[in-house]
Specification:
single chain, alpha/beta, 11 helices, about 325 residues
């Protein structure tokens, strides 16, 4: 995940400022199939209501890339749809006799009126028992500024100010929506291909699992992952970095892993935290949350956090949770 931009590899944000609609009046439909209307009021069975994913987030963070990925996976994608029209879009999909079973809507929130309309639409969808998921694309201020400068376009909310002013305004406007998101993806260090891989991992496949987890090792000295739901600190264990014969290796090495889990409290931690994760996973399922990111940290993200991430991921898999392991900072030293 921690891959720098390379020549010839486009960053998701570089595509977004040039590729996302920055204020068109009408909705842009990415794929075409006939559409139709929602359920309860019109007497349409709930089984006919399509799946709905709302893609939002920071301008320049890769919304267009995420939308194109879902389009390639067979979703009916609508870009720049006014939030007030989302329930109507779902209703049209429900009347399509199964032709539109999965809808993705890209929402570009630019002002208070749009945000108020989005909240009303989400409440309407909940009242009609529509299953919806929100994917939020996040990125650091530095990365967003670089992306807008690289395509020589202003931020849609900067007005007469600077790019950072527009970013600050948008971040504040989207704060509540980010808190409601089912999946937050930080694209600060991702290129287009890595973002597509993340979307594929979450949405590809024949059947949708009840809960999907990402276990991410990281180094505290490189900063906390902004998309973490749960954070684990493994710095209470001795650091293999200070063992000369183990220093060159990572937590994927058997000797390093054995050293970590032979320390007092290491195995007990895995057992008890795995039990805690079972309780948390059950609560997430009850609340309809389908994605969780567990960030496991140590000083440099090379030894203890990597070994622990592998163990926790294996436990989650044994508990029936579909799990992906990401080692964010391994190899940075």
């Amino acid at each position: 995940m921690n891959v720098n931009e390379h020549e010839g590899q486009q960053n998701p944000g570089q595509e977004t400022p040039g590729g996302e609609s920055q204020g068109g009046d009408g909705a842009q439909v990415s794929t075409g199939t006939s559409t139709g209307a929602n359920g309860d009021a019109a007497g349409i069975p709930e089984a006919a209501i399509p799946e709905l994913v709302i893609i939002s987030g920071m301008s320049g963070a890769g919304r267009s890339t995420a939308a194109k990925c879902l389009e390639d996976l067979g979703w009916f994608v609508v870009d720049n749809l006014p939030p007030a029209l989302i329930p109507t879009m779902v209703e049209l999909g429900a009347r399509s006799q199964g032709n539109v079973a999965r809808i993705a809507v890209v929402v570009d929130v630019r002002g208070r009126r749009f945000f108020d309309n989005l909240r009303e639409s989400l409440a309407d969808l909940e009242a009609k028992h529509v299953t919806r998921r929100i994917v939020f694309l996040e990125s650091s201020d530095d990365a967003l500024v670089r992306r807008f400068e690289s395509v020589r376009r202003p931020h849609p909310l900067q007005g007469d100010g600077r790019i950072v002013d527009g970013i600050d305004a948008e971040r504040e406007l989207l704060r509540e929506l980010r808190g409601d998101a089912d999946l937050v993806i930080d694209t600060s260090s991702l290129n287009v291909h890595e973002l597509r891989a993340k979307m594929d991992a979450q949405f590809a496949g024949e059947e949708e699992p009840e809960l999907r987890a990402t276990v991410m090792s990281f180094g505290f000295k490189y900063g906390l992952p902004v998309d973490a739901d749960l954070v684990v600190d493994m710095r209470f264990l001795p650091n293999p970095h200070w063992v000369p014969e183990l220093r060159p290796y990572t937590g994927l090495n058997e000797e390093v892993s054995a050293y970590v889990f032979n320390q007092p409290g290491a195995k007990e931690f895995i057992d008890r935290y795995s039990e805690l994760l079972q309780l948390i996973a059950a609560g997430y399922r009850r609340e309809g949350k389908r994605y969780v990111t567990i960030a496991v940290g140590c000083t440099g993200g090379k030894h203890r956090s990597v070994a622990t991430s592998e163990k926790l991921a294996a436990r989650l898999v044994s508990q029936g949770v579909e799990t992906v392991v990401v080692h964010r900072d391994m190899g940075r030293e």
